[in-house]
Design brief:
The complex is a heterodimer. By secondary structure, chain A is α/β, with parallel strands linked by helices. Chain A has 13 helices and eleven strands. In chain A, strand 6 and strand 7 form a beta hairpin. In chain B, strands 1, 5, 9 and 10 form a four-stranded mixed sheet that branches. In chain B, helix 6 packs antiparallel against helix 7 (268-286). Chain B has helices at residues 10-30, 148-180, 202-215, 219-233, 241-247, 251-265, 268-286, and strands spanning 34-35, 37-44, 48-50, 55-63, 73-74, 82-93, 96-106, 111-115, 119-124, 130-134, 138-143. Chain B folds into three domains: 34-144, Sandwich (Immunoglobulin-like); 146-175; 202-285, no CATH class. The chains are: A alpha/beta, B alpha+beta.
Chain lengths: 305, 287
């Protein structure tokens, strides 16, 4: 039986640096949510997702989102089989344990909606039949903050479906040197078979039983509520953010082999939970304020219990 | 009383600007207006002006949209100049709207005054992005008024005379006090100085809270002990255990902090075990 920490260590052997990304991948997996990764091209967003899928050994599918993508391209469709003279169902790439939606903001709203409905409901309808998606089911979506021309920004309601969002930064000089050394002669084999789908389901179940003291619960709620009255924030986080905060805090405690959450769990995961759930005032762009700085201020302003 | 005699310092202009900003801020919370700003310029009718004379600062903005008002236009701070008048004209035409705002100013100090450009915040109709449009700044040279040079000489002479009189007064007062001052040996020295007041150290505070917890273990006394431990590290109120652990290099204290978190936040059935470990750690630390 493996533990989430085994996956974490395996990912760290493949991904150079990017500790927050690696940790967020594992936490989201344990919490049973979906993760949004934002970063410039070439900062190992896709590699991190592929590496995670490889460690789990489940079915992995990658979908490159483009403006001409159709919902049936990701969900599946009914095709007519001439030999049997009957319709048969062809399942789309959504029917996988780990789905990588690359550049999710490049597809139109109807495709995004189809994916996000699957994320939320964990089932998909093809024709008249509704099929459950495999378990565990994890969607990792990437977004490129540049080249905004011709993209379809996700509305807040859809962003809210992602448990967390992580910003993939450029590596440091030392990390970049290590990347060149490690990947210069080709991509090394990804870590495989570290855990099984059954392991992941067990982690998810056990993480849900991690004890949450009422003080910690209230701390999470206070942070979410503080986001609604923060300066430069037009719309604060929804109650779903409080649920996400608690789920990720439990996952973090579980990752650290604790059966209870502490205030540090909530505070550590709060930026990843809040950053994509806030709508900012237009002045933020004019003043050049970093949205993450606003999130940090919100979290820092709420005293821990 | 003529309008120009009223005291209307630059702060009034700032107040007007603040009011406009406040009203624009209210709109900002709901989103900025989308505007195609074609022109935003600022010019003064005189680049050099003597003290006491007036000048006019004109701000011209042109937007492609037909708008009734352009509240987003923020006039600049004009430093120490007095604001004597402020007129805004809006003209709508088939190709858009022209807004001219003219400020009548009176300089009160000689020297060079740099007035920053007026600005307006809007969603740029061309790019769809929030943008601050800023006009050019204006530099104005204010010359001393005629005959002011003689006034300055007189003023400087009066100031020097005042300084001289004050210096003589200080010297005389010092001599008088020196004569009246008692000899140094007459200074009072307390025979029995008060003993130093004992100051409770952070460790003492933890010891006290720990004793209270041992006497009556409860959530309240544990909370008091946790607060004392946090304070012992120097962490500010509202910090987390990791903040506190980072603030101290004392390994025992770091362990105690970890165990306090377990005793405080673990499930009720597991708290006793954590509390026992905490007691052991603190007994060692407090020895």
């Amino acid at each position: 039986m493996s533990a989430p920490r085994d996956v974490l260590l395996a990912l760290r052997q493949t991904i150079v640096g990017q500790d927050e990304v690696v940790q967020s991948l594992v936490l989201t997996l344990v919490a049973g949510g979906h993760l949004l990764l934002e970063g410039a091209p070439g900062v190992a967003k896709t590699l991190a997702c592929r590496a995670l899928a490889a460690t789990l050994g489940g079915v992995f599918r990658r979908v490159q989102f483009t403006p001409d993508l159709l919902p049936s391209d990701i969900i599946g469709t009914r095709v007519f089989d001439q030999q049997s003279a009957a319709f048969s169902t062809v399942f789309g790439p959504l029917f996988a344990n780990v789905v990588l939606a690359d550049e999710i903001n490049r597809a139109p709203a109807k495709v995004q909606s189809a994916l996000l409905e699957g994320m939320q409901e964990r089932r998909a309808t093809i024709g008249l039949e509704t099929y459950p998606l495999p378990a565990p089911f994890l969607v990792l979506a990437t977004m490129n903050p540049y080249d905004a021309e011709g993209t379809y920004p996700l509305p807040l309601a859809q962003l809210d479906r992602f448990l967390a969002k992580v910003v993939v930064a450029h590596p440091s000089r030392d990390e970049e040197r290590a990347i060149v050394d490690r990947f210069g002669a080709g991509e090394p084999p990804l870590p495989a078979g570290v855990a099984t789908a059954a392991d992941v389901l067990r982690w998810q179940h056990e993480a849900r039983t991690v004890f949450l003291d009422p003080q910690i619960r209230d701390y999470a709620i206070d942070i979410v509520r503080a986001s609604r009255s923060a300066p430069l924030v037009a719309h604060g986080a929804s109650p779903r953010a409080a649920l996400a905060l608690v789920m990720l805090a439990r996952a973090r405690a579980y990752l650290e082999n604790r059966a209870f959450t502490v205030p540090d769990d909530v505070r550590d995961v709060a930026p990843a939970v809040l950053r994509h759930r806030l709508a900012y005032d237009d002045r933020i762009a004019i003043e050049g304020t970093d949205p993450d700085e606003i999130v940090r201020r919100i979290v820092a302003a709420v005293p821990a219990p | 009383m003529p309008a120009r005699d009223l005291p209307r310092p630059a702060s009034l202009l700032a107040a007007i600007a603040a009011a406009i900003v406040a009203s624009a801020g209210g709109a900002g919370a709901q989103g900025l207006r989308t505007l195609h700003v074609e022109t935003l310029t600022m010019r003064a009718d005189r680049s050099a002006v003597p003290l006491g004379a007036e000048l006019h600062l004109t701000i011209h903005a042109r937007v492609r949209e037909r708008v009734a008002a352009l509240d987003e236009l923020i006039v600049p701070e004009v430093g120490t100049m007095h604001l004597l008048g402020d007129e805004r004209h809006v003209r709508q035409g088939p190709g858009g709207t022209d807004v001219d705002e003219t400020l009548t100013l009176e300089p009160v100090d000689a020297g060079t005054v740099v007035i920053p450009g007026a600005y307006l915040d809007a969603i740029d109709g061309r790019t769809g992005k929030p943008t601050r449009f800023t006009a050019n700044g204006v530099r104005i040279t204010v010359a001393p008024a005629a005959g002011q040079g003689g006034d300055t000489v007189r003023r400087v002479a009066l100031v020097l005379l005042g300084v001289l009189v004050a210096a003589i007064g200080i010297v005389l007062a010092a001599r008088t006090l020196q004569r009246r001052a008692p000899p140094a040996r007459a200074a009072v020295v307390p025979r029995d100085p008060l003993p130093p007041v004992p100051v409770a150290s952070a460790r003492d505070a933890v010891r006290g809270a720990f004793a209270a917890y041992r006497r009556a273990p409860s959530r309240a006394s544990l909370s008091g002990l946790r607060a004392a431990l946090f304070a012992a590290t120097g962490a500010r109120p509202g910090s987390t255990a990791r903040d506190a652990a980072t603030a101290t290099a004392d390994a025992h204290l770091q362990v105690a902090l970890r165990e306090t978190e377990a005793a405080t936040f673990a499930a009720p059935g597991a708290r006793d075990v954590a509390a026992d470990e905490l007691i052991e750690t603190l007994e060692v630390w407090l020895q």
